[in-house]
Fold:
Amino acid sequence: MNHHPAVITANECRKLPEADWRFLTTSVLHQAPASKYAECLDCGDPHETRIELDLEQRPHTYLLCPVYGPSQIDPRVLLRWTVEPNIVLQRIFASVLPQLAATELIAGMLWRVGLATLLGKRWELAFVRNPGRDRDRRAETLLAKRRKTTVLTPLEVDAVAWSRILPNTVISLESISDLVDGQIRFDDEHFAGQLAMSEIGTKPATIKTKRSAGFGKIVALKQVLCEHVRAARDHAIATMDQTGSPKLLPFPTNQHLAGMAGLRGYEVTRCFQDRDGNEVRFLRDVAQDLVRLLEHRG
Structure:
């Protein structure tokens, strides 16, 4: 949800408990055009696929490997879904914003969520994604002018990044919701508590004090990994154009990542292991998976 467009593959969905991925694919996510690439089980590289009709006009999907030749595959491995912020927000805030219809203010970046009634007051909410070095400063400018607007982000690590930029109260969806047994659970008490802190003039801490330093390191590592993923995708496309087979750009060692992020090697390891390091783990996995890398648009 933190990338534009946010895309989830069939393999990613099936890593979740069955009740969760069935709920997501039927109630939250939108079916996207199928991927054109699949991973060859023989060579391990992703290659283009093609649909052929048999004599009875029934479609069959083939993976075209230049080394091992064509092989028939299950077309379901090519399925993809997009994450639509409006639908996700509707599911999360159904109890406090039953008529929610988020308005996109900046394409793929910023939405006005609406007015939620909590604690006997109405609170203006906005949702923003894609923070960091490549953020669109129009969103920053607009939100800074509306200081009473509570800003929502997908992940806690992004809430930390935006809270350093904006005067607004910033709350992550990750901190107030969860996916449990095929349902989205909304923690209205925690959300109300965050709003109450902002009402008395105290900008709520997006993280516990004892973990603030760790979040700053995760943010720094995330920026380095974003740059590597972009370079790795460009490299994979270039090698595919040149040789017909995409190649991975070697993934940096922890020491190399530490040097680029201004961290120590052991701090990079801790970032990957941190319970709030979901996005850096995601970027690390994408950078080392050719199929996901070629489909990545972050």
